[in-house]
Prior knowledge:
By secondary structure, the chain is mainly alpha-helical. It has helices at residues 15-35, 39-48, 57-78, 91-106, 112-126, 131-146, 148-152.
Amino acid sequence: MAASSSNSGPGKFSSVARAKARRVAMQAVYQWQMTAHDISDVLAQFLADEDNRGADKEYFEALVRGVVQGHAELDALLAPTLARPLEEVDPVERAVLRVATFELQQRLDVPYRVVLNEAVALAKKFGAEQGHTFVNAALDKLARELRKLEMRG
């Protein structure tokens, strides 16, 4: 897919707009985890925020709704990749892991390397000092399970 800065037709997306959507989705998931507010209210707040202009809004909403609705299944997929219970994982890294797990499982149109790279970048920027290493290790294990065919190709 093209890395243009505009949405130019069906199937086309901006990699910058998608990256921003992932960042905003991680922040919305983090807020939902910490406050347990209704996800519709969280989505409305983030969609109304001028700082989030330029994000792929449809992708953002799909990520957040997918994580919230499927968090139990996502957590079950993540659990075997973690050295400690998910509840003990830093909340920022937990949000990053959940968003990336959703993408690995549900968004086969997004290459696993993109998912991992974006998640590691978010963990570096917003997570604990070595959180990105933890996120990378967990998602690498998960990608080996969920994206076996893609990794062989």
